[in-house]
Design a protein that fits this description.
Two copies of one chain form a homodimer.
Chain A (H helix, E strand, L loop, with lengths): L4 H10 L24 H7 L22 H11 L3 E3 L5 E3 L2 E4 L17 H6 L14 E8 L4 E8 L12 H20 L2 E10 L8 E12 L2 E10 L5 E11 L2 H4 L3
Chain lengths: ~260, ~260
Amino acid sequence: MARGLCQIMGREISKGNFNTNIGQQMTPRGTLQLPWSSINSVRTMAVLPWPFSFQPRDFSLPNSSWGSDMRRLYEHYNSQCEVETDDGEKKWGVWRRLPSYNRSLKYTTGGVYLSKIIQSKARLFTRNIREQGAAFEYVVFVNKQEQKCVCVFQAGHLLEGPPGHVHGGAIATMIDTVTGTHATYLSGPVMTANLNINYRSPIPLGSTVLLTCSLDKKEGRKTFVSCQVTNTDSSKLHTEATGLFLSITMGHLLGG
Amino acid sequence: MARGLCQIMGREISKGNFNTNIGQQMTPRGTLQLPWSSINSVRTMAVLPWPFSFQPRDFSLPNSSWGSDMRRLYEHYNSQCEVETDDGEKKWGVWRRLPSYNRSLKYTTGGVYLSKIIQSKARLFTRNIREQGAAFEYVVFVNKQEQKCVCVFQAGHLLEGPPGHVHGGAIATMIDTVTGTHATYLSGPVMTANLNINYRSPIPLGSTVLLTCSLDKKEGRKTFVSCQVTNTDSSKLHTEATGLFLSITMGHLLGG
């Protein structure tokens, strides 16, 4: 596996001596969702001294629960995160892997009072189970050039809905997460306003699928994204959806 | 708390000396979803001898994690599950509480091959965490007379999406679960075909909300259900959605 710049970026964001709650989920939707313009400021925050120091787990990195499909697709996109120029220099490729953590910004509760217990124990819904392979195993890659986003998703045994198949709510959760990530990448911080999901064919429990998102249009504060969930060679459509996202200010996010 | 017939029904379905995997999730959507007509047959199954004997946990019963709103609304609906007639007899009320377990029908994988490990460890997505109060705490009541269904839902700290608020995917999961339960109650076994969800106002983590579902129409195999997610006194609308469900045969369910 190439030691891509994507991974390096992940490490720089997450290395010790900073509040590990910062930079783990910058917007109201899904996994780590950083618009390109905000990456530098997060990297600056990362070098600030902080009393807490530990290495948070990046859930988007491969682990022993990943099956062959999951690993193969990860390698496919990850190898395009960094390219070598003719003179041997390394530079960003067209894809970037987004690191993913299980905490959101501490003390940033959108103006809502939460008990200290809830606040300290809160975990991102899609990363709330530590047992590898049991629930949502996924990694998101974004492509700036094509304004496209893909997610490789392996559905664990704790996501059952219909017997032997993935729960419709777990599929909706991944769609919200990935379309929200893509909208954030394109437009900065957003909130989901609408999800319209058509379930075409159930997804067997334990299988790996691909979520592919693209921009439909932007109109003022609105960003329209569409998403298809297919099997790994894209020959079978499981689910398709559209998402409408509204841009919000950092004030919304920080409790204003 | 009244010892309602709803609870008695739950115990009869779940008591020992029968395969506890039977009757825990009769259809492809959400929690225990029994159309009225099938309850008698399930109760018959419950008295059959079976080599496995243990008491499965009914997740819809109150536990120490439930806050005052959750308990109050549970009591409100549960007290209407059983009424006393003038001559002191007890009979069903207009509401019924649906018990809820965390396993689906064993060996019923919709014709899909699953490894023994995945099959034996599979758990219903909304009941996959045993820690009380950590994730989805909910109870569903159905009203035959009004063709209505309500769900009291307390969102635990592991369901975070936007900082301090419930993940849009967790809300979608509850909507899928409750609209699917209602469609099953009205039409027998169904699969979700479409969910269209409008997110109006974020739900603070740890709070209790009410999901109210009603039938829009039935057309052949199609059942259209709408759903509103509000605060507990219904004064604030958090989310509204429609669901389209397609009737399936027991053959689909049993792997045909």
